[in-house]
Amino acid sequence: MNSNNQHSRQDMKILYLCSDLGIPVLGRKGAAVHVRVLSEALQRAGHTVVLAAPSLNKDPWEIPQQINAALMHLPPSPEVAQAVLGLTEFNESLEVENSLPGELRRILYNQQLAAQLERRFRNHAPDFILERASLYATAGVRVARALNIPLIVELNTPLALEQSAYRTTGLGELAAQAECWALTHADAVFAVSDPLRDYVLSLGVASERVHVLPNGVDTALFYPAPRNPELRARLNLGDGPVLGFVGGLRPWHGVQALPLLVERLAPRYPHLRLVIVGEGPMRAELDAAFRARRIQEHVIFTGSLPHDEVSELIRQFDVALAPYPVLDHVFYFSPLKLFEYMACGVPVVAAAVGQIAEVVRDGDTGLLHPPGDLDALAAACARLLADPALRQRLGETAAAEVHSNYTWTRNATRIVELARTLIAHRAGG
């Protein structure tokens, strides 16, 4: 039997590479959840996955999440740490702050990582590498070349563009050049949205190498089910309506609209509760805003939760929120929370931007509002709170849509199918 037929039938050995030092793969960040659930979907399909990552868990008090895949922990070497420390101390001596230490750490780490992986897999090569793109992530290309295997890159955001917009870069165009180099040298790129695919094409990547693969859900966790009365009592939700938000407390998630929204709705619904699931730099600002409006009794912050506890909380929501604001760039994202809300059968009120406006059909699988339009956001929430039948219809339709079209199992199948094609292409010359 030739190698083409063997690869068309046998299970695959996959090296899943996440070199991002800011993603603790056993932590609670959305990016970490993405890495774990996709790894597990590949494992469930019968493939063998080795997940290589530098960071496992950043919070020493947080119980690490479990993962059903071989985990290869490859932290930065002492030499990398020493070089970064030297630059940090130099900044401190000048009393300046910049991103140079973090950027240097990423660059040196990728050099180290490529050499480590080449040695580890020289005699036991995987069938292909799946790499989550990150700033200065060049190790995947180098290892794939050394082992003569395909590299598939998954891109969740325009990394260099996001860095320059939100965090600044101390090395000028180097981050953009590294991103362009990695994407153009990959055998294939999976972008999570159509706008992100357009971004990849703008960098000069051949169109036949770029594919769109939105995020999804683990249907074993996120599905419609009765509300847990014990959880409701523990959170003191009472008998009133519940709005819910899940995600990072950051300005580009639109959380600044939440105090204004509650202020609008609370007079009509005196027992209203807003449950906010997540952490982020805007937590203190939000808390202060609720208190300034004297509506803090309507709000419950749960903090960050283990992923397997989120679905039960979502089912407590009468309305789930994705109130993205007007951004100064294209909406490239594929929001995890959107699919998880919908998969649980909870009606969604979301900003009509980017992929959201494709996934949520207004009046069918949820309600849409113009981004940043508080009046429209409040009106959509009020409409759902006043109409239980509409909530049920939208929730049921949304759950059916997501369970049919947006799952990690489906994504894993597409990735492996593409990998088989790339392997066959190589074998055929």
End-to-end gap? 18 Å
Q: What's the main sheet like? A: 7 strands, parallel
**What's the mean pLDDT score?**
93
Q: Structural class of the secondary structure composition?
A: alpha/beta
Number of domains: 2
Classify the fold: give the CATH topology of the largest domain: Rossmann fold
CATH architecture field of the largest domain: 3-Layer(aba) Sandwich
Please list the strands of the largest sheet in the order they lie side by side: 3-2-1-4-5-6-7
Q: Give the number of DSSP strands.
A: 13
User: Helix tally?
Assistant: 17
Q: State the name of the first-level CATH class of the largest domain.
A: Alpha Beta
Portion of residues in beta strands equals 5-15%
Radius of gyration: 23 Å
Query: What are the segments in which pLDDT stays under 50 over at least 5 consecutive residues?
Result: 1-8
Helix content: 40-55%
Q: Which of globular, elongated, flat, extended, rod-shaped describes the shape?
A: globular
- Return the string of H and E elements: HEHEEHHEHEHHEHEHEHEHEHEHEHEHHH
Description of the structure:
This protein is α/β, with parallel strands linked by helices and 429 residues long. Helix 3 (78-94) runs antiparallel to helix 4, helix 4 runs parallel beside helix 5 and helix 13 packs across helix 16 (388-405). Helix content is 45%, strand content 14%.
Summarize it.
The chain has 429 residues and is an alpha/beta fold.
What keywords describe this structure?
single chain; 429 residues; alpha/beta; Rossmann fold; six-stranded parallel beta sheet; 17 helices; 13 strands; 45% helix; globular; disordered N terminus
